[in-house]
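#struct-help
A.M.: can someone run this one for me? Single chain, 353 residues.
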Amino acid sequence: ARVHIMIPKPSLFIEDEEPASASVLVKLVPGKRLKPDQVQGIANLIAASVEGLQAEKVTIVDSRGKVLSDQSDKNSLVELTATQFDLQRKVESYLEDKVSTLLAGIVGTNNYMVRVTSELDFNQVERTMESYDPESSTIRSQESDRVNNPDANAPGSQSENVVTNYEISKTVQRVIGSVGNIRRLSVAVIINGKYETIIAEDGSEVTQYTQRSDEELEKIAAMVKNAIGFDAGRNDQVEVTSMPFDLTELQETEEMITWAERMELLKLWGQRLAFVAAALFLVYLLKAIFVRLRPEIPVEKKIEEPVLEELEVPLETQLKMHKRKIVNKLANERPNEIAKLIRTWVIELESEE
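D.P.: on it. Structure tokens below:
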């Protein structure tokens, strides 16, 4: 990453001061993206390192020129709308996962598609309700007023007026509605049919597609409704349809995976064979080095003596050579006795002299 910081010159007047700003160029690995919280963390780190720099004044872009930092006001309606949209996506993803987990065990992993559209109510409503219960009234106060009639002999010479005040029970409720309630759900489910392998007239195997029955689709729709918490009062809708899937891309993907696994296996065996070949070559090389370093011991070559009879040698010479051969043989076989014999001859010669 490369960081550029612009620090303005100090001014004597506050109204003439300009805020500091910074720009960051991030070089990302191809196919990788930074999450919003990671981008915000980079901005906060740079803002905390420079005096007077606000995180809102840090602009972060990638190597392609795409602005990663959010320059909108954090308290504006734009931020609120983004939060609402994120909450809506989380609700839809949660419901899709629930339905997918249910359908995976019924029709198989690659034999269904689920899409959920939710409408959430983000209006925060406050209600105040007052209710009265006339049956649970009690006397609060009572006033009586007696009036005397001037004619005492007349009947009803006295009259009494009674005023009674009743206290009726009152209940006051103050209700604040929660934000993000589900207003309406729409769920679309596509189920792949069944494939059966049959034998054609020519004896070849043919794959035949069979659509799922209406009874089976109704059962699946009932389970989907229970999974998402279907409410007819909200005008929720669930639609389950059986259609043939285009499995060409899936088959190509499986073939690519199989090919990759095969190449990985061949690579593994190639590495093992290369290791064995390298070990054998190392052994051969060490053996050759040892052979060169080992001193050579001369080996006496045995010279075959020619047969006397085959050579044209005089008889007297042949007899001398034969005697010499006998003497050499005796000297090799009985060296001690020959030594004694020679010592005896030497002593006899010395005594004669």
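A.M.: thanks! Helices lie at 36-49, 77-107, 214-228, 248-293, 315-333, 335-352.
D.P.: also worth noting: The longest strand covers residues 126-148.
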